[in-house]
Amino acid sequence: MFGGPKLAGYLHPDSHARLLGQLEGGARLTIRGVDAEVVLGGGVTWMVRAAPTYILTSGELQRQRLAGQWGWMPSAAVGLGSGLPRRDHLRWFLRPTLLLQIPYNSSLAPFAVLEIGIRGPR
After folding, report:
1. Measuring CA to CA, how many Å separate 49 from each of 58, 63, 72, 91?
2. Which among 54, 39, 61 is positioned nearest to 115, based on CA atoms?
3. Which domain holds residue 25?
4. In contact, 50 and 30? CB cutoff 8 Å
5. Is residue 71 within 8 Å of residue 104, measured between CB atoms?
6. Half-sphere exposure of 81 (CA within 13 A, CB side)
7. Which end of the chain has fewer CB atoms at under 10 Å, N or C?
8. Long-range pairs, 85-94, Cβ under 8 A, ≥24
């Protein structure tokens, strides 16, 4: 069993930026040097539009600073990994992840993410 915080984000030029903060936990099983894992998480996301955004108030346009949207973002992932050659205390992993932004417009929005990384000693 393992768990902890995750902080991620991206910038889509001339469109928007997104920040994600999550707590996640999972279980990992190692058989013959190969790690298999299942990970579940939940957190919040904040998307900020890159272009100027205006709102109409009492017949006047006013620029809205940091216009964006908050949302709940649960996640589920499965992963595989193994030790690095001659550095078995370091382990690489490959983790396809599905995230759901709720709400998104009047429904939800799925995001597919591929996490690739190196994990330190257990």
Report:
1. 23, 12, 18, 37
2. 39
3. 2-119
4. no
5. yes
6. 25
7. N
8. 89/120, 89/121, 90/118, 90/119, 90/120, 90/121, 91/35, 91/118, 91/119, 92/116, 92/117, 92/118, 92/119, 93/35, 93/37, 93/117, 93/118, 93/119
Which parts of 1-122 fold into alpha helices (H)?
A: none
Total tally of structural domains belonging to the chain: 1
Token pair, residue 101, equals 């932004």
Structure-block tokens of residue 72: 């709940």
Give strand ranges (E) for the chain.
2-12, 16-31, 34-49, 53-57, 60-64, 68-72, 75-84, 87-104, 107-119
Positive or negative: CA dihedral 102, 6, 8, 19: positive
Q: Are 42 and 74 in contact (CB under 8 A)?
A: yes
Looking at residues 90-106, what average pLDDT do you find?
92
**13-23 tens-digit pLDDT:** 988 999 999 99
In this predicted model, what pLDDT tens digit does every residue of 34-89 receive, in sequence order?
Answer: 999 999 999 999 999 888 888 888 989 998 888 888 999 999 999 999 988 887 68
